[in-house]
Amino acid sequence: MSSASPQAAAGASSGDAPAQVIEDFAGLVQLLSDGTVVRRSDAVVLPAPSFPPTLSAEWKDVVYDPDHGLKLRIYKPTPSAPNSNADGEVSKKLPVLVFFHGGGFCIGSFDLPNVHACCIRLAGELPAVVLSAGYRLAPENRLPAAHDDALTLLTWIRAQAAMATADSDPWLSESADFGRVFFAGESAGGNIAHHLAVTLGSGLADVNPARVAGYVLFWPFFAGVERTTSEAEYPPGPFMTLPASDQCCRMSLPVGATRDHPVFNPFGPQSPALDAVELPPVLVAGGEHDLLHDRIVDYVARLKAMGKPVELVEFEGQHHGFFIVEPWGDGGNELIRVVRRFVTSSTATQ
Fold first, then answer.
1. Residue 175 annotated among the catalytic residues of the structure
2. Where are the alpha helices (DSSP H) in the chain?
3. Active-site residue (options: 56, 187, 245, 346)
C-alpha cells in the first residue's frame, strides 16, 4: 500500500479510471480504491496547547528502529526540577515511563505538540525519564503493525538496560532506572500498553534486565461488535464520536476483520484468556463522559474479577482524551497527581 500527498494522488488519478475515495478520516487521511493513502501534512489535528514560559523537562529524538525509520523522544527533568541537587545534577535515577500516543492507529505522532506537552509534564512532574515512541500508522500499515513496533521498542529498551554505561545513550545511563519501567499510553496507545502487558505477562517476551513496575492506560481504545450503553447513548465528545471510532477500526484492522478482533476486543470470542496472565499494578484512567466509558469500566471489572491488581480512576466531567486536548487543564493537573501517586506507590514496594 502506497502513501501520497493530495497533489500526487490527484496526478496519479488523471487516467481513464481515477481512483475513488473509499475512506476519508476527517480530511486527515484518505484511503483510495487503488490502495493509495493520502495524508495531509498541513492539517491541524488538535488545538495547539499554550506552553508555560519555563518548561520542566528537556528532550531529544533518537531512532529505535532504523528498518522502519521509527523514532522516540527522550525526556528528562531539567536541572532545576525537584529531583536535582544544588549543582543542577540529578540526585537519583528515575523511573522510566514509556508512552505511546493515541490517534485511533490512523493519525498522531510522538512529536505532535499536544503529545509533546503531556510528556513534558510527565517527565518534569512525576518525575521520570519518559520515552515517547512513534509507531507505524494504518491504513498503510494495518494492525498488528503498531503492536509489532512496540515489541521492537521492547528489544531496544532491553538492549539499553543491558549495555555498559559507555555504550548506552548517555541520558539513559545517567538518569534512567530500568528496574522501574512503566508502559503507558493514551487511547490507541493505551491499547498498545494493554497488549504489551498481555505479551509480557504470558511469557511470550521479556524485558530483562529491565523490570516492569506497572502499566498506565489512559482511556484505552477498545471496541467490540456489540455496543455498550455509553457507545449507544452518550452524545459525541469533542474529539471522539462513534462513527470516528468505527472508522478507525475499519481502517486499522486486517481487511475483513470485525471489531471483535483480539487487537480491539480483549474479551472477544477469539481473544486469549487473561486469567493466567501475570500483571504488575495497572492504573486505568477514564473520563466520565467518554464514549468508551462502559467498555473501560468493564475491562477493569473483568481484570479485578480475575484477581489482577488493577485500579480505575474516573475523572468527573471529562471526555475522551482530555489530557491530550488540554495538557495544562484542571483535568490534566489531577491526572498528573494520580499518576505520580501510582508510580510512587508501585516503586516503593519493590
1. no
2. 6-12, 113-125, 145-162, 170-175, 188-201, 229-233, 242-252, 293-305, 322-325, 330-348
3. 187
Residue carrying C-alpha cell 494520580: 338
Average pLDDT, the chain: 92
Extract the C-alpha cell encoding 233.
Answer: 447513548
Which one from 101, 261, 289, 320 is the annotated catalytic residue? 320
The CA-to-CA distance between both ends of the chain, in Å, stands at 47
Counting DSSP H helices and E strands in the chain, the numbers are: 10, 12
User: Can 289 be counted among the known catalytic residues?
Assistant: no
- Grid coordinates belonging to 159: 538492549
Fill in the amino acid letter for 135.
Answer: Y
42 is catalytic: no
* Whole-angstrom distance, CA of residue 248 vs CA of residue 251: 5
What are 168-199's pLDDT values in tens digits? Answer: 999 999 999 999 999 999 999 999 999 999 99
Cell, residue 10: 490527484
Other C-beta atoms closer than 10 Å to the C-beta of 349 total 7
